[in-house]
User: Which sequence fits this backbone?
């Protein structure tokens, strides 16, 4: 294991005999960025899709990309996949590119696998072209016109038009188009509402939260629905009746939330919101991200977190009375570690056992499945060499018996999975491995003969001496080596310019 110095830069070494070593000293790959799901809109202006993997390590890790379980290097595609560092770019995606993508990061000290990310295509089918049943009602009554939207992914934006008009109906206090299913609500109607109506939709890539307010891109419209309002004298008045409301919403941490409420009634009811600590309970502060539709028929929360969960109450009021409904928001999450592998980087002597353990939060609702990996491959328990113990609640233990150099050294991973996603954790295990020397530094530049010094590494490996590697910084392929003894802990490198060279040292 090498430590480098360029001029007078000091590199901190690693290794604590028989004990975990600092996570900052890990040199096997460890992911800092893993790929995320992508929804591609083929009707949009974007022509590429990218996934990102970034891993730390020394030397810097290299990357391999896979679709499902197939190495992308073995897949023929036109135009071809593009990779640069840890970035995978898919130019001009087609439906055949949909699937799950993941990467491996590797260097000479280990190999790790990322979580997978899905590429899916947005779509919207056609409306059913069959005739719609008309809606007949009387003045003062509340009513709705059903949108009956087509199948779509990930969601839709809805607007309504009156037949043969080119502009969408503007929102009013009496009318509301649900942004969840497109149904068009009237708090109360009058004969001026008579007419033919159509529901228009377009893809919404931000499904579940705030919608795109623009009207561009609406190219799917429902058949006409005729609304007939019969006059009534006098026009009846009625108390509020909340007919559109939420009950319980389960959302993943980081999602956006949309809550919708609408009330029939004449006069048109007004809506007010409270956040409460229980149904009918005491008021609480709203999350800072809370935003409301113009007439309080909808509230959005962005990037929700656990503190946002709880009860949200809406009261509809007019001169004839009130109606109250309460919604509950429950925030779910991917598995959360209590004990992670990052604190269990081990330096062991040959023949010792590797013992790793992870624990996680158990909410009692979402079962967690742990999986262990060694150098990018699943650990298959055999009861003798590899032992996985999941018998304790919210705990998984991996034991590797009689660990040996070159066989059991490397990267170990735990990946926890529940219905909301996966959470990885990483550690590095060294078995009788030469240690990276500590505190390599330039102590004297000399005349093309710099002197380097370092501290003795703490390691389980036998120490035979040290090896210095040096090369021109701008030409790392021109490498030279110099072997030195156990003492003194310094060496003078002949015929080397410290201003233009890089130096590395390791234990032999």
Assistant:
């Amino acid at each position: 294991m090498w430590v480098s110095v360029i001029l007078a830069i000091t590199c901190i070494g690693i290794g604590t005999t028989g004990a975990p070593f600092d996570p900052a000293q890990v040199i096997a790959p460890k992911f800092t960025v893993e790929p995320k799901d992508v929804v591609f809109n083929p009707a949009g202006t974007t022509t590429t899709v990218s996934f990102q993997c970034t891993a730390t390590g020394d030397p810097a890790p290299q990357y391999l990309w896979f679709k499902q379980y197939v190495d992308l290097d073995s897949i023929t595609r036109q135009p071809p996949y593009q990779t640069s560092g840890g970035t995978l770019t898919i130019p001009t995606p087609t439906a055949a590119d949909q699937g799950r993508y993941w990467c491996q990061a590797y260097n000479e000290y280990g190999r790790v696998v990322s979580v997978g990310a899905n590429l899916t295509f947005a779509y919207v089918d056609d409306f059913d072209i069959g005739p719609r049943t008309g809606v007949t009602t009387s003045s003062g009554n509340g009513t709705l016109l059903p949108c009956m939207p087509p199948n779509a992914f990930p969601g839709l934006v809805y607007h309504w038009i009156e037949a043969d008009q080119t502009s969408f109906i503007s929102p009013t206090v009496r009318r509301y188009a649900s942004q969840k299913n497109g149904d068009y609500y009237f708090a109360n109607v009058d004969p001026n509402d008579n007419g033919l109506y159509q529901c228009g939709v377009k893809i919404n890539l931000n499904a579940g939260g705030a919608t795109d307010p623009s009207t561009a891109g609406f190219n799917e419209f429902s058949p006409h629905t005729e609304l007939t309002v019969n006059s009534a004298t006098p026009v009846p008045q009625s108390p509020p009746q909340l007919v559109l409301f939420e009950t319980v919403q389960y959302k993943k941490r980081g999602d956006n939330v949309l809550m919708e409420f609408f009330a029939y009634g004449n006069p048109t009811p007004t809506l007010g919101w409270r956040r409460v600590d229980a149904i009918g309970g005491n008021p609480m502060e709203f999350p800072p991200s809370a935003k409301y539709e113009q007439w309080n028929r909808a509230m959005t929360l962005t990037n929700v977190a656990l503190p946002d969960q709880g009860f949200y109450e809406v009261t509809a009021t007019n001169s004839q009375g009130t109606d109250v409904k309460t919604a509950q928001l429950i925030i779910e999450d991917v598995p959360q570690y209590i004990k992670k592998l990052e604190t269990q980087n081990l330096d062991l002597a040959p023949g010792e056992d590797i013992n790793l353990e992870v624990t996680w939060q158990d909410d009692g609702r979402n079962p967690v499945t742990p999986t262990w990996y060694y150098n990018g491959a699943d650990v298959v328990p055999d009861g003798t060499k590899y032992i996985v113990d999941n018998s304790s609640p919210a705990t998984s233990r991996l034991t590797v018996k009689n660990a040996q150099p070159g066989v059991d050294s490397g990267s170990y991973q735990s990946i926890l999975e529940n219905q909301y996603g996966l959470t990885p954790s990483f550690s590095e295990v060294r078995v009788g491995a030469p240690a990276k020397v500590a505190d390599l530094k330039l102590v004297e530049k000399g005349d093309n003969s710099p002197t380097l010094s370092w501290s003795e590494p703490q390691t389980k490996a036998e120490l035979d001496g040290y090896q210095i590697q040096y090369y021109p910084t701008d030409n790392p392929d021109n490498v030279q080596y110099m072997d030195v003894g156990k003492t003194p802990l310094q060496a003078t490198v002949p015929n080397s310019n410290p201003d233009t060279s890089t130096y590395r040292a390791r234990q032999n």
About this structure: The CA atoms of residues 10 and 127 lie 67 Å apart.
